Amino acid sequence: MGKPFWFNAILQWKETGKGEYGITFPFLIGAIATLKNEVVTENFITDVFDEILNNPVSGYYCEVRQCGNIDEPVASIKPLSDLEKVSIRDSFEAQGQVSYGFTTDLMSMFALNCKDASECRVELIKKTLEITVNGNYSKNGGKFTPFSDSDKKFIEHVSALDCT
Q1: What is the pTM of this model?
Q2: Cα dihedral 70/25/80/83 (nearest 10)
Q3: Where are the beta strands (DSSP E) in the chain?
Q4: pLDDT at 163
Q5: CB neighbourhood size of 117 (10 A)
Q6: Rounded CA separation 80/6 (Å)
């Protein structure tokens, strides 16, 4: 059985050289909305966050950190064994394992300025909605824009993988 689209999109982002640390939440939300032919709303974003949080892929977690290169929170897929090597300040657990881990740099006053995982989740949803509400998903040249042709090809590539 294949991995969910969100997992493959996050994993492929780094593996294909699209980013150094991970994928932005606006890009991930926009990609999922595009594939499902959905309008991005707060409920849609919350549902995607809940899906990642409640259905981790066994042996992996979603690491959320601040990317200094683009000054945005990004998501990476990491093996659970990496938890001991990373400065995770707070996390969510589901199905007996960490599903989301929030790094200390993300939670600092220079990034999301959140005190715990629940507050970080709320802030990420709010920030993602503010960016995506106008159809902007991809950060290019320091600002969020609609998907480029290259972005659309990436989404097509990931959707062609064995996704559930």
Answers
A1: 0.94
A2: 50
A3: 23-24, 60-67, 72-79, 88-94, 97-103, 138-140, 143-145
A4: 65
A5: 20
A6: 17
* DSSP-derived 3-state class of residue 93: strand
Please enumerate in sequence order all residues whose Cβ is within 8 A of that of 118, keeping only pairs 6 or more positions apart, or say none. Answer: none
DSSP 55-85: SPPTTEEEEEEEETTTTEEEEEEEEGGGGGG
Q: Are 95 and 53 in contact (CB under 8 A)?
A: no
Residue 1 pLDDT greater than 70, yes or no: no
Half-sphere exposure of 30 (CA within 13 A, CB side): 26
Which residues 6+ apart lie within 8 Å of 93 measured at CB? 99
Sheet of 72-79, strands arranged across: 23-24, 72-79, 60-67, 97-103, 88-94
Q: What is the mean pLDDT of residues 11-18?
A: 92
Average pLDDT over residues 11-34: 94
Q: Is the dihedral of CA 71, 28, 112, 132 positive or negative?
A: positive
**Rounded CA gap, 141 and 161, in Å?**
29
Q: What value does the mean pLDDT take over residues 49-78? A: 94
- In angstroms, what CA-CA distances link 14 with 40, 59, 78? 24, 18, 11
